[in-house]
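Checklist before submission:
- one chain only
- standard amino acids only
- sequence pasted in full

Submission:
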Amino acid sequence: MEQILKGKLIRPAYDTGREMLFCGDSLKVLDKIKSQSIDLIFADPPYFLSNNGITCSGGRAVSVNKGKWDVAQSLQEKHNFNRKWIHKCRRILKVNGSIWISGTFHNIYSVGMALEQEGFKIINNITWQKSNPPPNLACRCFTNSTETILWAQLNNPKSHHVFHYEEMKQENNGKQMKDVWTSSLTPPSEKKEGKHPTQKPIFLLERIIKASSNENDLVLDPFCGSSTTGVAAKRLGRQYIGIDSSEEYISLSIRRLEHVQKGLF
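Returned file contents:
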C-alpha cells in the first residue's frame, strides 16, 4: 500500500502489505496520504469527556478520565479540532467513499456541524443502543445508554456512496434495517490482548464495513486505538490503515491483527 503515501515516506510501525499501522500525530500522518485514495473511513475521535467525574465499571465507581488526549477543551477548540481532521479526511476520501464518525453528546453535535462545513452530506444518524450500559451513579439524570454514529458522503453530485442494501436486509431477517442498532458493550472475549477505554465491539465495525465497502477496499481509522476497525476489516477481506499516537495502543493493535491472521478471533 505504499503507493498511497506521498512525498517523503513515513515508516509504519506495522506493515503486512494489506494492513499498515502508524504511530504518531494523526493530523500529520493524514497529510502523507495521497488525495482520493481511501474507500472508507471510520473515526472514533476524542469525545472530550475526561472531566474528573466518575462512572461505574465492574460494579464500582471509577474515574471517567481516559487520558490526556481526551481532556475537555473549550467549545471552540473542540470544534476547530473536529474541522481540522475532517478536512484532512475529505481530501483523501474517494469520490464514492464515505465516512462514519462515532460520538456522544459531548462531541457529536460539533462533528455534525463540522461535516457540513467541510463539504459532506450526512446520509444517516445511527443510534447504537447498548443493552448493558453502566448505571448512572449520580441519579441526577437518565442513564446514558446510546452513542451516535454519523454516516456521511461528499456533498458532490458525482458522489455515489456504496451501500449493500440487500445484505443488510438479509441480516435483519428480510426486513429493511433501521437506524437503531442494539448490542452489548465490548465483551471480555474481545479484550484478551489488552484493554482500550473506548474500544468498540467487533459487531459494530463489521456491520459498518459490510454495509458501505467492497472486498479489497481500503479502510482508514485515524484514531484507531486497539484497531477494532482493523480486526473487522481483516476478517472481511478489506485492507486497513490505522493511526494512533500511543505506542501502547499500536502494540495492542498489532497483537490483535496478528491473532486474526492466525485465525484466533
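Reviewer check: Helices lie at 26-30, 75-92, 108-117, 165-171, 202-212, 228-235, 247-261.
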